[in-house]
């Protein structure tokens, strides 16, 4: 088998393992999941997993990266993917709400649906902080470009400061909204209110 054909097959197998791992981690949490559980869900032998991943933490990091990367893609699409030539649909409030819902809302719904949400969040901090950091950098870069497009303040220092404030609100407020472990409906409602508030401020600027 040539290297040209083996690499796509290897990538496909890794993707399949990650998809299986997401199912198992959601159902069992990180601590209660073993390599055997993942192998069973992926319909392969446990030794075969080690051809693609070093250990359970390695699988978790890759699976989590795939999950949040997909969420980030969906989130940025609501803003026109951060590209000047794109034309996102709906009002600014709707676009910002879509951005927040597709990333923060969807991930919170998935995490809170698992009885092992705290365990998964702990594993994320231990095994995937770099992955999360890269995704958040990409998200915030796209959001910053969007805010420059939709606001009318131009390049002045005051306008830049105002955009930085919106960026901080949209990045950090969703984290505070989780403090009381709200239901998905309540959390999504808070995200919608945040989007409407920032959009109103943009319109008034």
Structure description:
The chain has one domain (3-204): Tetracycline Repressor, domain 2 (Orthogonal Bundle). Helices cover 76% and strands 0% of the residues. It has nine helices and no strands. Helix 5 packs antiparallel against helix 9 (184-204) and helix 8 packs antiparallel against helix 9 (184-204).
CATH architecture field = Orthogonal Bundle
Compute the separation of the termini in Å: 61 Å
Please give the count of helices: 9
CATH homologous superfamily (4th level) name: Tetracycline Repressor, domain 2
Mean pLDDT: 89
Helix content: over 70%
User: Structural class of the helices, strands and pairings?
Assistant: mainly alpha
Number of domains: 1
Strand and helix layout:
Blueprint lengths: L2 H26 L6 H8 L3 H4 L6 H22 L14 H22 L3 H11 L1 H22 L6 H20 L7 H21 L1
Question: Which characteristics define this entry?
Answer:
disordered N terminus; mainly alpha; about 200 residues; Tetracycline Repressor, domain 2
Short description:
This protein is mostly helical and 205 residues long. The chain has helices at residues 3-28, 35-42, 46-49, 56-77, 92-113, 117-127, 129-150, 157-176, 184-204. It has one domain (3-204): Tetracycline Repressor, domain 2.
